[in-house]
Amino acid sequence: MALSRREFLARGLGGSAALVVGSAAQKMPFLPHYASLSVQTLNFHISDAIKDMVTHNAINEAQCYFWVFKEERWPAEVPGPIILTTYRETIEITITNDLDEPHAFYIPGMFNSGPIQPGETYKGSFQASKAGTFLYYDNLNEPVNRMMGLHGAFIVMPAAPQPGHKYTPYVVPTAAVQRLFDDFGSAPWWPGLAWEEGDHDTHTLAFRQYVWVLHQASPNLFAEVGELPPGEIYPGDQFMEAFLRDPFSPTGDNRIPQYFTINGQSGHFAHNSPHLCPNNRVGEPVIIRVLNAGLWTHSMHIHGNHVYLLALNGAVQKNPLWVDTFTARPMDTFDWAVPFMRPPDIPNQRGIGRADPGLPTAGGGTTWPPNEELALFIPAIGERMGLDLAGEPIDLSVQLSPLCYPMHDHSEPSQTSQGGNYNCGLVCGIDFTGDRNTPGGATTFPAGGEHEGHGPEATGPAAPPIGEYPQGTAKW
Amino acid sequence: MPAFHIPRQSVIGMEGHWAKMFDPPNESPDTPEFVEPTNPVPEVMLAAGYLDRVTTPHTVQRDLMHGDDIETWDGLKELVFFLFRDRDNPADDGHFPGATIRVPRGVMFHCETQGHGPPPHTIHWHGIEPTPMNDGVGHCSMEIGHYIYQWQPNFIGSYFYHCHRNTVQHFEYGLYGLLLIEPPDAYFASIASIDPDGTYHLNDIPIGACSDGKFRIAANLARFPQFPGFIGGDPVEGVANGDPHAFTVPYDVEVLWVPDDRDSVWSDLAPDARATYPRFGSTPGVDDEFDRNPGHDDFFAFNDFNADYWFITGVAVPAHKGGTAAIPPGLVIPPELNSGVSGSQISVNARVGQTILVRCIDAAYNSISVTLPVDAVIIAMDGRALGVPPFGLYNSAFILPAGVPFHLSTARRLDALIRPTQPIDSFATVQFIDTRGQVPGTPEVVLMTARIPFVVTP
User: Fold this and answer.
1) Among the three residues B142, B158, B182, which one is the final residue of a domain in this structure?
2) Is the pTM of this model over 0.90?
């Protein structure tokens, strides 16, 4: 069943909120998978919130206290909304500090509000002087203010591609990165679309890009910080010691992190979000920008495709490695290109990683597309049942379509929430919804029939900004 | 009171996916898109006397799991291990790490897998990219049960396999092994004849070598002429010209490094393989059981990893936290646990003028920093040879100078090629770096340093 608009609204933003600043960026469909607002100025309040985390439900309250960059037009969320603009755009920003200690808004090398005292408002402007992937964060009392939730992603796109070339995410791409983007959709080994290219007929959006802000949350430590008397500052070194090295406690009452998030979401809420998890066909390459706002190192492993490392900490790569796992140290940012090639170890005629025809199977089909597998429901229809909130039975079967793969931190202690609950941690995914290159044109795999919908096209647009948003509807 | 409340998102309309995410079904389906297997390795292993039998033709066996307790080097602890076992292999009744699986590129690979002791489990083939059912991740397909995994390796290189059920515990406790994709004529080259009854007879070509009698690895070494025997290929089409040795280079010595770390407190307090199995409730999203974590008071801190024992390819490193120690010289992996390949080393023992291939994978939950005593050329990362057309047209092999550390986080792999021009009596070092201690502006926290003997004689 495709979600109705009402049901979708109740799902909330889930880390999909974005602000697109400046006319050049607003002319281009740069953030097709996010809930984007076109704005001329940024209006932030620095505030606080209590958040219901991944394992939260009627029998197990799991909440965490945060500080938030609350943009006036979006509901509160951790991290703050994605901000996207174009190179050399001037951005006007207003920041009001509603908390009771000094705070700031900082983008390394581009902007520094300086301390904003409690109750005060900062007004200023800055220029997006570099293209790429950056964290914005509160750099006061490092790392406390950033770790408490005051961070988000700042994305700067080039306003135009290099003359005579296709779009890359960079103003000055390396020769290798430019060649990769020129080859997507052109070279015989990358059949399909270029990155800048969409296809109205297949509901494929241009400039497919995803932003993953990584973070770790400690409910015990964050509550301590929140409960300090007004004007008191939690010492940064003491915070680090508790967050990283509090003595082991098998019962979990220490102050190390218990929740591990991508754009504030964990487990199902990240992997099965059409805004965080790429849902695309073979031949529809995407970019994923990864930013580690936290204090733990993560080892990001993607299934289904190897990815090209395009840029690391602002340096566009001269030698873009083709990897399945990459290291995200604290404050690292990197960009991946996911080619969305057919998962290459699905049997095919030559077995050399190319989009060859499949092999004949015992069932009379071929190995690609894997129609027998795509038709399976595991669990089977009717095998697992639950009750909805009205007490009516619901079928918990899941069709193996589209082709579903995870992306997760392989440094596995982050795959938990509240100490256990495996797979409710720092995991997202990559789903293959079809193939552009099947004979006769693009195909779309079945999207679960009556059971599920996938992708923004199937589930409707992302949640709207304040005014239309169902405030406080914690409808689990 | 905080100014805002951020509600959890609804799972309405997604209850099936929600429940499957943390409570995957345990199933034993037939393999969809079934194709007859063609992997020659089990039959070659049988002909060489390393297997008792081949239960299913051309099919590798891996049961999981077999539990074991292994005493630590200092005699202070018994660590609980979860191990793979090969029912056809009398030498493999559970080994840490799991026996190496080698497969020629392009064959139809089948692995018959049974989960017990206790199930459920899966096998994920890390870096191999098949369909989701054959990828072995429960929430994207199912857990087993009994299943025949099917895929066709398309890229020569270094991979590994591991259980993806409750991975935080099962991978940590030892449910993994190396997975190496070989050139397409490896193993086939060692077959002299096949009787009508399916009995294989072997020739003199060493098991795992190619038809020219040499062990080969994928690379593009056009810029590095110091490695003799490199065979190029089409500069755009790569290996598509059909030469099984296109873009490969021979090596004389293979070295397998799998640094790992263990937390003995986890082993002591959470020996149960069924730890942290949350269950969906009668109304998914409302009354799920997120408090069924066998441990202390229904909670066990699998978020809190503190390594205190370290291993290189299953060999204990005799040092405590903060220390430095060497593993013994002369360690060689027996062929019966190495898909029949003889002579693969852990501690390096080579001669001047030989080509040494070092394959290194970080199986620790901490990062590692690897330092070699001699210049090396990094020819591949994560099972993808650098510079091999067409997908490697965007990158190239590069030099890792002697003494310069290379960092890998969990599950990353590198393949390094070395051709020493003079004798060496030294060590490679592997520093284990705390992933909770890589904070910008502060020194990295080195938990311990392992030294691997690296000896090159004239």
Assistant:
1) B182
2) yes
